[in-house]
Amino acid sequence: MTLETDDIQGLLIRGYGRLDGACYVPMQFTEARRTQQWLHALLPLITPASQSPEDQAVHLALTAEGFRQLGIPAEAVATFSRQFKEGMTEAHRQFVLGDVAQNAPTHWQWGGPGREPHAVLMLFARDQAALEALLAEQKTQWEAAGIVALSRLDTHKLPNFREHFGFNDSISQPIIRGLSKAEETPAWNTLAPGEFILGYPNQYDLFPDTPHVALAADPDGVLPDVPPETPPRPPAKDLGRNGSYLVFRQMSQDVPAFWQYLKAHSQEPGATPEAAAIGLGAKMVGRWPSGAPLTKTPDQDDPALAQDNDFLYWNDDFHGLKCPGGAHIRRSNPRDWLLTERSAQDSQEMVQKHRLLRRGRTYGPPLAPSMDPLDLMQAAPDGQERGIHFICFVSDIVRQFEFVQNAWIRFHKFGGAYDDSDPLVGTHYQEEGVVTDSFTVPARPFRRRYKQLPQFTHMQGGAYFFLPGLRALRYLATFPLR
Ligand code: HEM
């Protein structure tokens, strides 16, 4: 099935690696009619996936409250998924995601009580000067429409695709079947488009549920029909086609705490303290700083393998002796491992239903400009905030993002562990007999247990958005307000 790339917003297909400048503006609308006019003027700037821009890209996603504020009928908003409508900060969901205590939305810079966005405007430009010009122009437009920016979330690229702890974070992505690269990639990593884009079959060979409006609510026929293959419902117009749910989580990273912990707990006979610290960090990530996977090179970094993503776990590393089962990349994508009493094939099919298309970028200054772990571990704490604007696209928030976050990243018994959660991004605590702040490294003759891991990342903001297709945006900009 051919992807309608003229109607899909380009961020779903590419991460704009060559557009160095980027910033996200979470915003609140104040008046439906002026917001509609603003959206109408913005439409020609929105970048479709059929273009590969050299200069700039502009994208817009909305929250459920954003659709309501725009005046979309309540019965249409009701057709979005429950998780989206309730939002990231709903009380039960805070527990599911681990957004409690220090990570609770009441502590967030945006997205928490009173600061919930209605939309996020995402701007990309070839350099910082071009970004400033684009932003200034856009600011004039949104202010004229009475729109209030909640924050300006700048992103900065770090050398060698590193994230702030010093590891390459540009490697593993699911490939969408129907895009050209799919033929070159292994079957385990080639996913049905409906896993990430609404309007196409998913891994179950079903069309994902799609938000829709009644025929009468689209008198000019701007929207396509809901696919006939979707569950029986009265004929309706498809508001979701070529769109995707966008999960946004701003997470700060405590880089000094990370490297101090590694240095203090990683003595290895025959290794320098620095090499031992990097070795333990690599066990936590599942890749070396260059990006080389431990499954392929367990004992030392090998920059020649920096972009290597062609590995599985069942045959090569069933017991996690190379890449621990609890490492960040093995928890967030166990590939063909996990249903250990079943088979690699069963595991692979299960894991394929919980994949995320990531589009995150880092923010804040590097602790050491080189981003070399040797420099990062020597650098003194500077009190600056830095971290990741974690962004991922899914067609089903609960089956994909929330499942990965809750059952894999947070779960303290994941893969046969006892007291562990994800060493990088899990919530580490000891409470009422539950311990989640350990990290286990399988080894022979004895496994190693690292205890009392501090919290290395903290939530600073977030929300569930929907990134509509271009026709749906045009509908939002033109549908008759009551
Ligand atoms: C501060 C926060 C985070 C940091 C520093 C971080 C860091 C990393 C690094 C270094 C990699 C390896 C590079 C790659 O495979 O592309 C990676 C991969 C990955 N991360 Fe994260 N991450 C963070 C948050 C998250 C969160 C919140 C999730 C999901 C809920 C997540 C899901 C993934 C996935 C799915 C992969 C790819 C795994 C694979 O396919 O092998 N990450 N991350």
From TrEMBL:
Which metal ions or organic cofactors does this protein require, according to UniProt?
heme b
UniProt keywords (A-Z) are: Iron, Metal-binding, Oxidoreductase, Peroxidase
Family matches, as InterPro entries: Dimeric_a/b-barrel, Dyp_peroxidase
Q: Which GO terms describe its cellular component?
A: cytosol
Q: Which GO terms describe its molecular function?
A: heme binding; metal ion binding; peroxidase activity
Q: Which domain of life is it from?
A: Bacteria
NCBIfam families with a match to the protein in the record: Dyp_perox_fam
**What is the designated name of this protein?**
Dyp-type peroxidase family
Species annotation: Catalinimonas alkaloidigena
What lineage, starting at the top, does this entry show? Bacteria, Pseudomonadati, Bacteroidota, Cytophagia, Cytophagales
